[in-house]
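User: Could you write out the 3D structure of this protein bound to adenosine-5'-triphosphate? I've included everything you need below.
Assistant: Certainly. Input first, then the structure.
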Amino acid sequence: MLEVSDLRVSYSGIEVVHGVSLSVAAGECVALIGANGAGKSSTLKAICGLVSASGGSITFEGRDITRASGHAIVRAGITMCPEGRQVFPQMSVIQNLRMGAYIRTDAEQEADLSRMMDMFPILRERQSQAAGKLSGGEQEMLAIARALMARPRICLFDEPSLGLAPKIVAGVFETLARIKAMGVTILLVEQNSMMALGLADRAYLFEAGRIVMEGAAKDLKNHPDVMRAYLGH
Ligand code: ATP
């Protein structure tokens, strides 16, 4: 479904992603793990057009989207659930959800809205409240539901557990598992490697802007180098 080939990303002429190649098949859940600053988020941002690639190519369902604009990439079926949630704080919960469906013209948006609130009952309870007043965990649920409102073919998640208490993190991962079970293709960036490898089918390990290891998530989870460097034992 998604093919990233020899991707390079630079900020002010300084390259931080040095030729990354990865792929995601339809229905798969793929995790990008590794230390802070390894280039995971920059890779994700290049895929959804938030930063431009300085080299390489990105192909989605056979179409070259390397130079496509962000809105064209969303229309193609790629949606990002951004790091730090980035809900629209002064808009209500329901307005945030409607923003997720901004590109849609079909008649099923209201039904999807209702489905999202069935999936996240707290969002139904708080539907008229300003999104900025929600707790961090509730905002993460809103950001996930808003992303799903676009009916993406693939959903990119950037650090969904960042800054959340362990109990809330467990809830976020349960939600991601439900989304995976619904058949949504997932590309996930996570510093919580243990949780990410528990959820994903396959994973890529990033180090200093390069992929240094890839494989089935369960193999990476048991790999001594990964355990030592990222899983704390
Ligand atoms: P993190 O978990 O901290 O987000 P990461 O693996 O996702 O880590 P990136 O965020 O992609 O890494 O960062 C890769 C490198 O690019 C880092 O050295 C970072 O400081 C730098 N970087 C990221 N965004 C910018 C930016 N907007 N301008 C300049 N440098 C940036």
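Residues 29 and 145 are 18 Å apart (CA to CA).
User: Perfect, thank you.
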